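This part of the workshop introduces the protein records we will be handling. The question running through the whole workshop is how a given chain folds. To make this concrete, we reproduce a full record directly below:
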Amino acid sequence: MQTRQLGNSDIQITPILMGTWQAGKRMWTGIEDSDSIAAIQGAVEAGIITIDTAEVYGEGHSEQIVGKAVGKMRDRVVYASKVFANHLKHDQVIEACDRSLKNLNTDYIDLYQIHWPTGTWDSEIVPVSETMGALNQLKEQGKIRAIGVSNFNKDQLAEAQQYGRIDSLQPPYSLFWRQVEADLMPYCVEHNISILAYSSLAQGFLTGKFGPDHQFEEGDHRAKNKLYKPENYKRVQKALDQLRPIAEAKNCTLAQLSLAWVIAQPQANAIAGARNSSQAAANAKAAEVTLTDDDLAKMDAISHQVVDHLDKNPVLWEF
């Protein structure tokens, strides 16, 4: 798989990234560590050498699983992790990074990101200058190689940039969730900031595996996804029916078609999770799907049947 430059850094990432929220188990159901390890290893073997995780995914469990899975392949892999909104004071950032380094069994993290802006999820307000000061210190020490932010709006991103180089933005972005296009995407294009799209398969809705009567198991947070609200879910099902012929013409799955659409957008790369190695290998094949201008126009029109009915709040869930 061809790689791309991460922002203005010297790091090369794959356009498809392995997402590992599910490996942390918390807020998911039916996840086994052995399957998560096999999925991560399968992703790397299939060419997905960029792995995204976070300290909050299972309170470090996801990072630990990533570390176990990667093992001696560390020199082949790019790690991206995140510090949560409740650890944004200077010393907390340092301590969180050290925990993540231990969990990942490595002495450096390639990309370290602020997971949510200060004040979100009832966290204490911390000046971004203080958080960035800690991140710059970690970078100078060689513990991290690049700095990114996640779930920031344009003003928050611009403010963070005043205190250090930001190489990536991680927002929710998919065919069914496109708020980032309004002002963040043009800003990232202008400043050469890589977009690492999470929920690039709309948390599985774009795989087509959830039928009209699907019920999530108790404890699965996706039941709180706004796309799952009855009025939105009907539009999702209609759009999927219209996307299927395009996927069939491309000899690919709906998931691969949807990932190919994301990585065809300006500055955009797609984070996709996988429960097993076969899913990871299938995700990797999305990088081989070529979309014409006509394909992209058709998919855009289909997408708007869903996204035009959503509000401007970029948060995916109603917790």
Q: What stands out?
A: The chain has one domain: 4-208+254-290.
